[in-house]
Write a structure and sequence with these properties.
Helix content: 55-70%
Largest sheet: none
Number of domains: 1
Order of helices and strands: HHH
Shape: rod-shaped
Structural class: mainly alpha
Strand content: under 5%
Number of strands: 0
């Protein structure tokens, strides 16, 4: 993974609420890591992004639809016979 590709993933993780300071640290040291560690870090962040994305999608599906409890029935027109 290239540093620009990593930056995209890290930005997405930050947008999902992950610790920006920690992720900026990884961004700063990424190119100084040996190739095997770069790969390990890349896989870790890809997996984390996948998990968070799936969790957010599942959460969005379980949100209850809005209720009509706020509708004021007293303003309805009377029924005609």
């Amino acid at each position: 993974m290239t540093k620009p590709e990593l930056e995209i993933i890290l930005d997405q993780l930050i947008a999902l609420g992950e610790d920006a300071d920690e992720l900026h640290y990884w961004r700063d040291i990424f190119e100084d890591l040996p190739a095997d560690k770069q790969e390990e870090v890349s896989l870790l962040f890809k997996a984390e992004l996948h998990e968070l994305t799936e969790a957010n999608a599942a959460e969005a599906q379980t949100v209850a639809p809005p209720s009509n409890d706020h509708v004021d029935d007293s303003a309805q027109l009377p029924k005609t016979v």
